[in-house]
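Why this split exists: single-chain examples teach little about how molecules sit against one another. For that reason, every record in the complexes split bundles all components of an assembly together and asks for one structure covering all of them. Below is a record exactly as it appears in the raw files.
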Amino acid sequence: MNNRLKALRAERGWSQSDLAERLGISRQSVNAIETGRYDPSLPLAFRIADVFGQPIEMIFLREDAGK
Amino acid sequence: MATRMSPARRRYTLRLAAGMTAYLITLFLAVTFLRHGNLTGPLAWLLALLPGLSVASVFWAFGRLLVEEDDEYQRMLLVRQSLIATGFTLTIATLWGFLEMFGLVPRVEVFYLVLLWFFGLGIGSCFNGGVGRCGREREEA
């Protein structure tokens, strides 16, 4: 699953650590999600959506999106 | 960048230290009273079991860590690490068992499997670290 975490973070000037703190998870976990090595559970995906104030589908994209 | 230890990890470290301290103390007592003393009966059984139970407390601590860790990605890494350790231990135990059955290797005490499992945790940790460093990782700008 692709995601726009890095871009959304950059827009707000947040580091991975800032986002991790807001989500209550480790920076390593943010990095794993951001780089696509780990797909978050639905509850965590909703928390991420809440932190960015956007719907989930605007943050997480299907692998085949845009094809 | 240094990673802060989660509260669950801190509790695990404390439980691990307590378990290992209990192991050292009970092993010393067991060797003193059972091997060099003449203790018999139920007390001897209890004393002989205590070092093993102390080691078993480490497995309990690891289980609690899996339950108490809030970070789901960290939890997934721990599960993978323990599965690798278990697979490694069972593979070595199976291979050694057959070699032992055909008289090709000497008999080894079963409790050494615990050491293998801990070694397997190390392998699992390396595997997790290796996956973390593989090509797709992009550090933050």
